[in-house]
Input
Amino acid sequence: MRFTAVGKRVPRLDGPEKVAGRTQFGADIALPGMLWGATLRSTHAHARIVRVRTDKATKMPGVLAVITGQAFPTSDGEGVPVLARDKVRFQGEAVAAVAAETEEQARAAASAIEVDYAPLPYVADVREAMKRGATRVHDESEDPKHPNIAGVAEVKRGDVEAAFAAADLVFEDTFETPWVHQGFLEPHVSLAAMDPASGRLTVWTSTQAQFNQRADLANLLHLPMSHIRVIGLPVGGAFGGKNAVCVEPIAAELARRAGRPVKVVVSRRDDFFATRPCGASVMELKTGVKKDGTLVALQARLLFDTGGYPGAQHGVGASLAQGPYRVLNMDVKSYSVYTNRPPAGARRALTSPHVHFALESQLDIIAHALGIDPLQIRLRNALRKGDTALGGMEMPYTVAGKVIRTAAEKAGWQRRRRSSGRGAKARGFGLAAGHWSVWAGASSAWVQVNEDGTISVVTGAINLTGTNTSFAQIAAESFGILVERVTVHQGDTDTSPRNDGSWGSRVLFGVGEAVRRACEDAKRQLAEGLSEEMGVPADRILVSEGQVSVRGKAGRSLTLAEAASRAADYRGAIIGRGALSDLPFAVAVAAQVAEVEVDRETGQVEVKRLTCSQDVGRAINPMSVEGQVEGAASQGIGYGLCEEYIYGTDGTLLNDNFMDFRMPTSVDHPQYQVALIEEGLDGGPFGAKGVGEPPLVPTAAAIANAVYDAVGVRVKQLPIKPESIVRALSGGR
Amino acid sequence: MTAETTMTFRVNGRECQVAAGPAERLVDVLRSRLGLTGAKEGCSTGQCGACTVLLDGEPVASCMMLAADAEGREITTIEGLAPPGELHPLQQAFLEHGAVQCGFCTPGMILSAKALLDRKPHPSDEDIARALVGNLCRCTGYRKICEAIKSYARSTRGRSKRVRKR
Output
């Protein structure tokens, strides 16, 4: 199939405002009479709240409203209280909030609120938290043996015991990953205003999910949903960190009480320790193999740290633990475990990077033990059509092997040369793969054909990654017009059809298909509107290449502009509708080869080259897809080498800033090679599937495997620290 | 609160008089008093670079500087890079190379690049990487940003800089 708009490298439609610095993010917006909100946060990791005194704060200059936990009797959709009520379960948990005339006044008043805490012993590690008699994070837990289990998921198939008995070799390894921040640069920010006459609340916020915000706010504020309008703003990075409600209900409640608009900007420090970062994990894997490398059994116990409240995605971890490989006998038990850490949130691909770090590292250990090429062991076991994957679904196509082979070929895997010579620096190559399942979720769009023949697309999906540009390409392709003749509008909860959040790599897949279907619907309406005038049945009228013509008859055609204005005369506006939630799931497979240089003396690891291949179904906008792949892989380099939360012995976060929480900078980026594979077509628009998350999945494991290749040191704990390498090289442990 | 005093700077080529407190940061004066919200505040500690502006042509973190210390000096913000309705070719290069994703780091990133290119019109890859080390970007992985800057530098070889219509 030849495309005219799909597959083209189109610069982001919102790019001109962004390069000009004119995009209005949340912090850039001000309303007349606006107040500032500030929060008081817990200084304890775990403590009972004995008393909160607000009288002093209430009387301070400029203060118009003060709220505490009593303001919110209900917790949010994931069970997190907006303001702590009986006790605080992590350092940074919000306890009270203030609205005042200026930001300084709000901060001063917040810190004047007096809280008497009765400190409690705290638990900071999932293994400790799983022990009998561990400190209880939630008093009401009903499981006396394991009071801190927040959730369990199990994936079982085949006969694991028999398979282990029949295996030639069995490998047991434990892997660990740290707490990390998503690293978005724009801190959380929300602005709320309640119209005193109508009682209607409007919330402007940096969120991935405006409709979910509306539902949560209705629940938290005990307002009818019809009284709430959420306006999703341009988002300065999110990566899963802006899925859930954060300061929206605080801004809203303060605005309701003060009778004036309230803006809350979260400080960087608070964003580090008090929002929803990505939780740590401990993963114990036991894997049985045949001598030829065939995987025969996988048993795993996965412990995901969910912090003080639910949020860790243990179910996703269980369903993806087999990697993109065929595993006939499997017994995976996966837990979310409470600790006195921040509530775990989503991070690009949820727990998939965790489990793939474990599995792909262990696969390398197995390959080396068996003397098999790490590429060959992966190809031997790669998922094929009909294999069971994703916790019980049937794999819809054979593509994993090709993705893995492509990464290896493009990286020169067969010609690779490990330089393990005597010099200070050793070079190594590491291969890893990963997978992710993409679900459409509630996806919808409206498409209007304007009287000048241009197309307006409206969706309620938050445009994070440039999906609006891809929607324009999809609409242009559907009508056969130039991309410049399509505008895409991100509406809010009052002005656009409902959509699920911009997460799970679902937007292009699901909403993109809704846009395509809305275009087809609009074309059908055009044909029906013109059928009488053109004197032919609607099904003989063809809309393509920006023209409306009669099938099989040359010469009788109208331009899209003529057709739209005439059809509108007969029918009113031509507005196509696309709404779905039922697309079959898509499996996105990514594979990467990391080429690293390890300094034997300092233990420093530098990623020199990262070759990434990925099945994207169809690259609607290859430039944007490459941007997703490179950005995700860069995040994976940080996860692999330098990012981690470091806590003090009192349970407080020590590195709550960008200097001490080290993310990759411009001097850390490797040479990227990206290969996009357009197979495994699904029900997405023109065969496209999700692209944003899969490329983070294999990166850390690829680096760990490359470090092993370079210097023979196997690091099973992220991040891979120089000191671990130096210690291992000097014979210590 | 200490009384406000009047400060004078040149901002984007025009002389500006602003009444501000002695403890007010440059980023606040630019964003709140002058409405120049292109400088973004990502960390308030000079570590992310999103608030970068040019002070006498050199990049500074405007969250780490008192407005009073900029008195009498020349400040360039992202809004001053091209006349309204137009883009500077460096901005155009960022756009065309996919060097922009969320756009929060972009103004600071472009200004750091501009300072480098003014000093060294044809920088090496290493020069570019070093010049951007104070500007964090979480979306792009940096490669496309470096490519955009290189491409702009190539396009100016043997030509005078021109501002192109958007």
